[in-house]
Amino acid sequence: MKSLPREQIAHLPTKIEPLKNLTEALNGPKIYVKRDDQTGLAFGGNKTRKLEFLVAEAKKQGKRTLITTGALQSNHCRQTAAAAARFGFDCILILTGSEPQFPSANYLLDQLFGAEVVFTDRRKRDDRLKEEYEKAIIAGRNPYLVPYGGSNSTGAMGYVFAIQELISQSGDFDWIIFPSSSGGTQAGMVVGAKVFDLQTKILGISVDEDEEVLRDRVKLLAEEVIHQLELNVEIKSCEILVNAAYCLAGYGVLTKNELISINAFAKEEGLLLDPVYTGRAAGGMLDLINKGFFKRTDKVLFWHTGGTPGLFAEQFRGIIRE
Ligand SMILES: *Cc1c(COP(=O)(O)O)cnc(C)c1O
Fold first, then answer.
1. Does the C-beta of 181 come closer than 6 Å to ligand 1?
2. Does residue 74 have an active-site annotation?
């Protein structure tokens, strides 16, 4: 396997903890959590693992500015802004939506990290990103384009090696459950499982896309990861497990599903989920448990991808407690 430049940023390995109370309360499979909400960079999350490879690539190419895009409350943008601050890059963020009167949560943190923010509407996002990128080139700022969600093959490498880390901790889970959106996390995991021979079923709970779109996205990314690592393996569509039953309300819309999981994890385990990603995926997991999807003897690993600052976003004020 080809070796790639990597910057050490995350606090690794992240812990795996049993969720004894939830397991007991549900009378279901044995539930565990992998704490990628504790990757250490500015409240942590899955983007930190991706940034280890993205920042290293930017440094190697002699870039001076990180530029990326996301939602107003993007966890990816918050972690990118923090990494930029740490490694001495300027940071430009193209955020979708309009400037809020009172900065909160991730957006407040973007500002603390000194990121320059450009607002745009969702439809114009990619054009605006390109425009700002070209402006930065002309201005001699030597920008490095970090893709949406950190999800290109370079970013996805973080999760190839997260699977190697998991195997070194314990390889005997039956399922991995986690929120999947731009696909980099899942693509990395799927390739990692293939390369390091992990048999665990990897089920992404879609946050915002229907099944086919997400599966195709993950497959394409996985193929790019394989190519970049110069591996001789193949990923079939049927090996990419996606459940899109919990995203019908749309991205970032708080439903009963998220409310149930956020409150259950908090009350039973003292563990925080976020309203957009992990709340949605954990809600899906609880629903699947209630429907008897897993065997009682299964060991299920909920891979916590972070996002907890979202609990304090203006849009969720007063509606998160059940
Ligand atoms: C970005 C993000 C995800 C989704 O990861 P992808 O690699 O984009 O699929 C999941 N959870 C949280 C908290 C995130 O910020």
1. yes
2. yes
